[in-house]
């Protein structure tokens, strides 16, 4: 019997084997999804909400006010889009050009530099399907997918039977965790958990490279050399190795040069790939879409057909320097996620919030537009954490407008 499968947009895995039961356009039961996915798929509300100055208005009034804010701003900021479709990204880039806006997303303070390195082919990568079918050595570095991407280990990386790994994790896969704490993923890795101090990743990389070369590895924090040599020997024997790089690793490095050196050393001895542990379902898609249009993955400023790029155009530096005078926040909650010393500057400018959820940002926005949940109430395309393009259709019908539809109306109003 054929089954009607759906795509879950709850995280960067974009699991495509989800089944649901719905009644009167309300999802009652979700099968196959993880706890994050179930909560995400059942998140929809019945009535769309539009507010201006925290007072209920209709959609037309909210769009008119949003357009007016952007039109009167000299340097608006457009931020978010990690939980929006690729079709929405292209419209946001067009809107940024039209309004001479600064455009950024969360990747400017998380995994953007790593995605950029992959786009420029500086690091060898592969697909999650390749990993499921072939991987024999798996490293989770500064990442805890058991909590952040609950189906990661069971669907793709460690537990599944692959076409070339039929005996699975019991005999044919080795999982390794390198982290500052014993996470849930580290517990699964058992004896292959390497606990390092905060900020110790670069030294551990140098020691591991020395071990790969047969030299005695040393660290200033006196990590046991024998244990690093043991790890190096496991990595040298990999036929298909994968490094899942998380925020814990990226935040520890001043730049990616140590990681480049490690991947080079690994591939001189074995066969290793890297995939970033992208959280938002289409953050990598935003990076790739913006790169296709501008040559940059984030932190850009449009100015009369000129595209400027630099850290000063990230949301963090823009708010810190108070260089933006309005903000359109799409599917993000910077008032909750950014440090208070930076986020508080959003209270000084008019903010437009487009979001399926009520957030701290939406509750304090001058204009709030309650949009559809992509993958649940609206369809489109996205890019999975490994770079694979995924298309999806809405599961239920809704009166919530999609991000794409709202941006089109704002541009028409401009």
TrEMBL record:
Molecular function (Gene Ontology), one example: formylmethanofuran dehydrogenase activity
Presence of the UniProt keyword Oxidoreductase in the record: yes
Organism superkingdom: Archaea
Enzyme Commission number: 1.2.7.12
UniProt keyword list: Oxidoreductase
Gene3D superfamilies in the record: Dimethylsulfoxide Reductase, domain 2
Top-level class of the enzyme under EC nomenclature: oxidoreductase
CDD domains listed in its UniProt record: MopB_FmdB-FwdB
InterPro entries: Formylmethanofuran_DH_bsu, Prok_molybdopt-oxidoreductase
Protein name per its UniProtKB record: Formylmethanofuran dehydrogenase subunit B
Originating organism: Methanosarcina baikalica
């Amino acid at each position: 019997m054929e089954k009607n499968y759906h795509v879950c947009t709850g995280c960067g895995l974009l699991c495509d084997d989800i089944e649901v039961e719905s009644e009167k356009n309300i999802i009652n039961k979700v099968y196959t999804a993880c706890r994050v996915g179930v909560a995400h798929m059942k998140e929809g509300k019945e009535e769309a909400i539009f507010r201006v100055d925290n007072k209920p208005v209709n959609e037309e009034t909210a769009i008119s006010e949003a357009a007016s804010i952007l039109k009167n701003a000299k340097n608006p900021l457009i931020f978010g889009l990690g939980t929006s479709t690729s079709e929405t990204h292209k419209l946001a880039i067009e809107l940024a050009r039209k309004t001479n806006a600064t455009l950024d997303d969360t990747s400017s303070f998380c995994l953007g530099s790593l995605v950029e390195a992959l786009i420029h082919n500086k690091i060898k990568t592969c697909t999650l399907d390749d990993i499921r079918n072939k991987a024999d050595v798996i490293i989770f570095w500064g990442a805890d997918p058991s909590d952040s991407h609950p189906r990661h280990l069971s669907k793709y990386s460690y537990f599944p039977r692959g076409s070339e790994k039929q005996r699975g994790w019991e005999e044919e896969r080795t999982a390794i965790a390198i982290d500052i704490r014993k996470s849930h993923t580290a517990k699964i890795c058992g004896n292959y958990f390497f606990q390092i101090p905060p900020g110790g990743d670069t030294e551990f990389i140098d020691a591991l490279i020395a071990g790969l070369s047969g030299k005695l590895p040393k660290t200033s924090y006196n990590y046991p050399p024998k244990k690093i040599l043991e790890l190096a020997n496991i990595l040298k024997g990999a036929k298909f190795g994968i490094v899942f790089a998380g925020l814990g690793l990226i935040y520890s490095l001043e730049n990616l040069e140590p990681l480049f050196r490690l991947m080079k050393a690994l591939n001189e001895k074995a066969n290793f790939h890297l995939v970033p542990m992208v959280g938002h379902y289409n953050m990598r898609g935003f990076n790739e879409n913006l790169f296709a249009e501008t040559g940059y993955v984030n932190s850009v400023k449009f100015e009369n057909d000129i595209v400027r790029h630099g850290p000063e155009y990230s949301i963090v530096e823009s708010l810190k320097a108070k260089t933006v005078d309005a903000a359109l926040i799409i599917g993000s909650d910077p008032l909750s996620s950014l440090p208070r010393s930076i986020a508080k500057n959003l209270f000084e400018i008019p903010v437009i919030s487009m979001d399926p959820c009520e957030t701290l940002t939406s509750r304090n926005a001058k204009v709030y537009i309650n949009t559809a949940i992509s993958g649940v109430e609206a369809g489109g395309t996205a890019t999975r954490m490994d770079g694979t393009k995924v298309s999806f259709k809405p599961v239920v019908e809704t009166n919530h407008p999609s991000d794409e539809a709202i941006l089109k109306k704002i541009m028409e109003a401009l």
